[in-house]
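Running this now, will post back.
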Amino acid sequence: MTDLVTENVKNVGLWQHYFVSMTIFSGDVDRRLHDKRDMEASREPQIGHLETRKEANKAREPTEK
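Update: finished.
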């Protein structure tokens, strides 16, 4: 009888560990995806082709007439 109780306690412990680790893991993946999207969004205007950068610099400079 004691062996059966011990076995059940071990199984419950394993299930708890599984659910806790899956919860942490899924939250971590979700956070990483959001971080990646934020990084891409903040990087978008800065990284571009040389031509685009030249055009952006020209637009920023005050035009002299």
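The helical segments are 2-43, 50-60. More later if anyone needs it.
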